[in-house]
């Protein structure tokens, strides 16, 4: 929740009475909108009710900041943008409360229509028009009250008759977007089982028919579902816990299930969502500072319903919830944790959060408050899961926003830049891909110093050399950097057996292809990845582009050809890294294929699959070779001299770096790693490995 700044009041400020209970009451405040007379301000009243008495009330789910997405508007610079500052005022029981513009828009809409008192099927009538709104019903200046009330959020939302999701006022995108929604939800189920690859293809035409949906209409829909509400972290809890959700945009009332979730599911399942994301990204205003991807909004809606289904079968872990929250946005970083505690408490069937789990705003003004919160709940996750797989959620240091965090604590306020190797969807042991610490007993460490995480580990190896990052390969054509590590590999055999060539291609896709363990099909597909990168470099070196040094690219192309020749000489009859003659022949064959032919479609599909496997594995990572000649990929910020460790309780190896201050037995986490040949207990099996007790800081 955003802190309220001090507005200029035109009247006496409202004075909140206490919500402290004496006999076990569960007090909250609820708002009633009073009939509007000649006054310019909205008139309201606050009343204290006891949740123990099962009162009838609604809850408002909304955003404090600007609710609209402007980047698909004709001229975003001219759009009227709201702030999250409380610059509007309402009269409450004769006194003044300052609120945001978006909240005022919602209250004005309710005041015009009396919507809060509308009938909800299967529920008691809200005859008194009670509604709970966080910014008004919680005294935002009382940290003790905020801590208690936020700890009750699961009770407040699950006890409400319904949640009203307020998307904000209408804009130029609203009406076309609503027409799209009505059209999409009317498509029969039997027509939905297809994959749409482009807006001109036969599958698209057969489903959507006539009249065609224009690019502008799709952009209008994209702008609608990228409104801030869909990406706000508190929404997860509010929508998850609500018995019933009505979605309001201006005067328009939508069904969460039929208009939002089912349409999002349809777009996601048919690939239309991805096409829409690409189109909207190209149409967004070029001066935008950032964009929210369409697929995030669609996935968020689908994931929310999936979590509801899962929670009905088993309790949700806090680890999974905090990982999920990283796909959303929050005004204050601590809300990435506090905004999920209600779901966790509800899912666990608890009446009260454990004392050490309750939100605490008493230290919120301290500069490291967010770091305290993230560290505190990371400790709890380790105690709850009984392992160290939370370390797989630690992103590269360059992406972290909370600079005071210990290196082993994930930054929950930043979206994932990599796909974690040890996923938060915990699989059954028989389906688990990797277990680097197999048969290495783990004991949950004692929490003596919250910033230090004591662990037991085995120092396996040290990084000797590194290659280019994903962005350098894609943007600067540095494919030769990867190939050099293979061409200059200083041994004939790989340490764990097999060819260095096999270890090379398997490492670059973390031994995974189309979400399954890599096989011969993946090996055969890998050549297309090499062919494409060489072709792309050749094209770039031949064509003049602004701010591109073609001489430099020509030199790089020559070096790449030389490296490929060295690999061909070193690894005879190698199809994985084809020689230049084979690459040129392949490029010529691909160029001669009929764009609509079955063979062309098959090749495109194979290339898309291997490119995606490489992207998922290598994004925000880099290839490295260790002193013992093992190949691996890990966080971009790794350096020669960093160490490879296998820690008890961690299913994948970790890259650690000795602390800069030279303290003994203290290391920083650089990130998790895929290292070919040591992913399933091989290090633990080796004799003579000394187990060390170290601290992660």
UniProtKB/TrEMBL annotation:
Residues 57-238 form the Heterokaryon incompatibility domain. It comes from the Eukaryota. InterPro entries: HET (IPR010730), HetReg/Transcr_Mod (IPR052895). It holds the Pfam family Het-6_barrel. This is Heterokaryon incompatibility domain-containing protein. It comes from Cudoniella acicularis. The lineage of its organism: Eukaryota, Fungi, Dikarya, Ascomycota, Pezizomycotina.
